[in-house]
């Protein structure tokens, strides 16, 4: 090759190598982003935190958290007694006095939970209180208003987090933690229907609970 071309190639090679390195790094990073591990939250259920409302915090976080981005489970004492409910994030960060669960999720995810989901969960909790007080007609009204707007969101979230080959496994497993509140809600609805002498309505609610357990939308 003429000396001019030789010199040009020598000048270009470092640039080409750097470009290849940058492109390779970018592609590798993009590949990793698709496999980012979800944030892990553990809610302390030691006696002190339970008395501070830890169980309610666990249930609500599980109901509102998108399962493909957050995993929520019960945890053990982290020596933050007296500051419950206590939530440990990724086994490192400690969140104390977590009574505004939606605020915690928004701070972690950068966006609020869907309004229908938050409202639906709160209505189902109100229904539990109404049923405990013997107000079964009120409980039915609250359960139906709470479950129906939220169910499609919850089902879609769970299914988005599943691999295609996990579908059969879910159909034979207990309800996902994200769906447990809906499953329990339909159980409560069945009991309330029986209290108001509506056996057909109770049976329908039980059937919908079974659909929830399989990850299907009972309203579809």
Give a quick summary of the entry.
The protein has 220 residues and is of the alpha+beta class.
Classification by helices and strands: alpha+beta
What is the residue-mean pLDDT, rounded to a whole number? 81
* Helicity level: 55-70%
Number of strands: 4
List the total number of helices: 9
Q: What kind of assembly state do the chains in view correspond to?
A: single chain
Describe the global form: globular
- What is the H/E order? HEHHEEEHHHHHH
Summarize this structure as a short list of keywords or feature phrases.
globular; alpha+beta; about 220 residues; 4-stranded mixed β-sheet
Describe this structure in words.
The chain is an alpha+beta fold and 220 residues long. It has nine helices and four strands. It starts with a helix and ends in a 7-residue tail after the last helix.
SSE layout and pairings?
Layout (H helix, E strand, L loop, with lengths): L2 H31 L5 E6 L2 H5 L2 H11 L5 E6 L11 E3 L3 E3 L5 H9 L5 H18 L3 H25 L6 H5 L8 H16 L3 H15 L7
Parallel strand pairs: 1-2
Antiparallel strand pairs: 1-3, 3-4
């Amino acid at each position: 090759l003429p000396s001019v071309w030789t010199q040009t190639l020598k000048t270009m090679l470092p640039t080409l190598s750097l470009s290849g390195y940058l492109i390779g790094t970018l592609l590798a990073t993009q590949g990793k982003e698709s496999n980012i591990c979800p944030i892990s939250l553990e809610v302390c259920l030691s006696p002190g935190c339970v008395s501070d409302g830890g169980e309610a915090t666990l249930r609500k976080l599980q109901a509102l958290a998108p399962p493909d981005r957050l995993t929520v489970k019960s945890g053990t004492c982290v020596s933050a007694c007296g500051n419950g409910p206590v939530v440990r994030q990724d086994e490192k960060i400690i969140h104390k006095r977590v009574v505004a669960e939606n605020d915690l999720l928004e701070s972690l995810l950068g966006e609020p939970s869907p309004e229908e989901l938050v409202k639906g969960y709160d209505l189902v909790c109100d229904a539990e209180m109404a049923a405990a007080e013997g107000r079964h007609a009120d409980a039915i009204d609250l359960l139906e208003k709470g479950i129906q707007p939220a169910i499609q969101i919850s089902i879609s979230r769970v299914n988005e987090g599943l691999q295609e080959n996990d579908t059969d496994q879910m159909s034979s497993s207990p309800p996902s933690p994200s769906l447990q509140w809906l499953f329990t809600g339909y159980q409560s609805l069945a009991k309330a229907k029986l209290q108001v002498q509506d056996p057909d309505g109770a049976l329908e609610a039980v059937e919908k609970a079974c659909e929830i357990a399989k990850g299907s939308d009972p309203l579809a």
